[in-house]
Design goal:
The protein is globular and about 45 Å long. The mean pLDDT is 94. It is an alpha+beta fold. The protein has four helices and seven strands; from the N terminus they run βααβββαβαββ. It has a seven-stranded mixed β-sheet with strand order 1-2-3-4-5-7-6. Strand 2 and strand 3 (65-74) form a beta hairpin.
Length: 181
C-alpha cells in the first residue's frame, strides 16, 4: 500500500538531487552499494538520465520530495544479455519498496524482458526477504565479491522470471518508464 500523500511516477531529470540525497548515505556508509565515492550531482544526473532513457525508472514523491526510487538497468552490455536487467530500489519511507517494484516489474514484463536480477550485498536479510516477497529466487552467492570499508563482502544474486525464455524471442523494448494512471 502506498503511504498517504505519495505518488509513484516516471523519473525526471529534476529528481536527481532528491535521489542523490537518498542514495548518498548508502555510498558513504555500509555496503548496500559498492560505490565508494559520492558522485557529483552533475555526473549522477547524467548517469540517471542515461538509465531512464532506456529502462523504466520510477520515483515515489511525497509532499514534493523524493521518498524512494526503483529502476532497471543493463545486466551486461553484450547484446546476448539484452533480455536480462538488474533492478534496484532505495527508499527512505517504509512501505514504498513494493509500491515501486510492482509497476517497475510490470513495465519490464510488458517490454519483453525475461529476467530481472537483484544483486544484494550480504548481510542484508531485509533486502533478501523483500526480493523473495516480490517473487525473486536466490540462485548464487559470490563469496568475498568485493571489499568496502576494509571488509570483504559476499554478494547474493536473486532472479525473477518476467517472461518465458523462448528461442527466437524478439528483442525487448528499451524505452523510458510510463507514468502510472
Amino acid at each position: 500500500m502506498i503511504p498517504q500523500n505519495t505518488h509513484i511516477r516516471a523519473y525526471r531529470s529534476s529528481d536527481a538531487a532528491g535521489i542523490l540525497a537518498i542514495y548518498g548515505p548508502f555510498v558513504l556508509s555500509g555496503a548496500v552499494t559498492f560505490e565508494t565515492e559520492l558522485p557529483t550531482l552533475e555526473s549522477f544526473t547524467e548517469r540517471l538520465n542515461g538509465i531512464a532513457s532506456r529502462f523504466p525508472f520510477l520515483v515515489a514523491e511525497s509532499e514534493g520530495l523524493i521518498a524512494g526510487y526503483a529502476y532497471a538497468a543493463s545486466h551486461r552490455e553484450r547484446i546476448a544479455y539484452q533480455w536480462a536487467v538488474e533492478t534496484s530500489v532505495y527508499v527512505n519511507q517504509p512501505g514504498l519498496g513494493s509500491a515501486l517494484y510492482e509497476p517497475l516489474l510490470a513495465q519490464l514484463q510488458a517490454r519483453g524482458f525475461v529476467w530481472a536480477y537483484a544483486v544484494i550485498s550480504l548481510p542484508n536479510q531485509a533486502s533478501v526477504n523483500f526480493h523473495a516477497k516480490m517473487g525473486y529466487e536466490p540462485f548464487v552467492t559470490y563469496p568475498d565479491a568485493g571489499q568496502k570499508q576494509g571488509r570483504w563482502i559476499d554478494v547474493a544474486w536473486m532472479r525473477r522470471r518476467l517472461n518465458p525464455s523462448l528461442d527466437g524471442s524478439a528483442a525487448p523494448r528499451f524505452e523510458a518508464a510510463q507514468d502510472l494512471a
